[in-house]
Amino acid sequence: MRDARLPVVKVCCIASREEAHLAIAAGASALGLVSAMPSGPGVIPDEQIAEIAATVPPPVATFLLTSRQAADAIIEQHRFCGTTTLQLVDHVAPAELRRLRTALPGIRIVQVIHVTGEESIEEAREVAPLVDALLLDSGNQRLPVKELGGTGRTHDWSLSRRIRDTAGTPVFLAGGLNAANVGEAIRTVSPFGLDLCSGVRSAGRLDRGRLAEFFHAVGRSVP
To answer: Helix, strand, coil % (nearest 5) of the chain?
Structure first.
């Protein structure tokens, strides 16, 4: 049984049913399935996302990472993929978030906030009441080719802590997490959840040993 004092762990960039079950066996509470993105790792076709999501047993959550910004397009994609959670990696307007909530009442909505500076705190405060959780990552939506996740970089965790303390909704921490730094990340931010991709992979593939090291490090973060 998971220690309730510990953050939940979401393993992202899942590419196959085998990787899904490897992550679950290691202790993952959620899996991230990456659809079409302008950049970054882990992208798989929607057909593959649907196939993997259908094999994941509850209560493990399946997150559809989507870069779509219009509610109708997101709804269409979700209904095809059949995941339990939407992870919106780009900015989605408040009106579109409300439409998602109305159309998909049983589906959790997680908005990604790319923590680039003080402006990210205000962005998080504005969107928090409209979603079920925030995910604080290290991308940059303002680049000519958007970075919407999977950068392998950390960001300023002090900003993430301020968002966590003021948002009023659960917060996942992402961006460059691994076994060596996750203890400090937990102590600094105290997030509801952790999200990682490259930190538990070798040559792009999910690594059983790195998974074990990461979960061991998470367990050591609580006295």
So the answer is: 40, 20, 40
* Paired strand residues for 147: 140
Q: How far apart are CA 152 and CA 129, in angstroms?
A: 28
Q: How far apart are CA 110 and CA 10, in angstroms?
A: 13
Q: Give me the DSSP letters along 4-36.
A: TTSPEEEE----SHHHHHHHHHHT-SEEEEE--
**Whole-prediction pTM:** 0.94
Q: How far apart are CA 133 and CA 183, in angstroms?
A: 22
Q: Which fold has domain 8-220?
A: TIM Barrel (3.20.20)
Is residue 34 within 8 Å of 51, Cβ to Cβ? no
| Residue-wise pLDDT tens digits, 127-171 | 999 999 999 998 777 778 887 787 888 999 999 999 999 999 999
